[in-house]
Amino acid sequence: MFAVPNDPPSEVANRRDQMFPVLTDPEVTRIGGFGTVRRFERGTRLFATGEPGPGMFVVLQGALALSQRDGMGRVVPIVSLGRGQFSGEVAQLSGSYALVDAYAEEDLEAILVPPPQLRALIIAEADLGERIVRALILRRVALIETGAGGPVLMARSESPELQRLQNFLTRNARPHQVVDVTQDGAAGALLEHYGAALADALVVCPDGSVLLNPTEDALARALGMIDSVTHNELFDVAVVGAGPAGLATAVYAASEGLHVVVLDCRAFGGQAGASARIENYLGFPTGISGQALAGRAFVQAQKFGAEMMIPAQVAALDCSKAGPGGELSLQLADGRRLRSKTVVIASGARYRRPAVPRLTEFEGRGVSYWASAYEAKTCAHTEVVVVGGGNSAGQAAVFLAQQATKVFVLIRGPSLASSMSRYLIDRIDATPNIELRPHTELTQLYGNPEEGLNAVSWRDKQTGLEEKRPIRHVFVFVGADPETEWLAGCGVALDPHGFVLTGQTEGLAAGHVPAPLESSVRGVFAIGDVRSGSVKRVGGAIGEGAAAVALIHQHLAADGAVPTLKGEKPVGDVSKRR
Question: Which contiguous run of DSSP H or E holds residue 515?
Answer without folding.
Answer: none
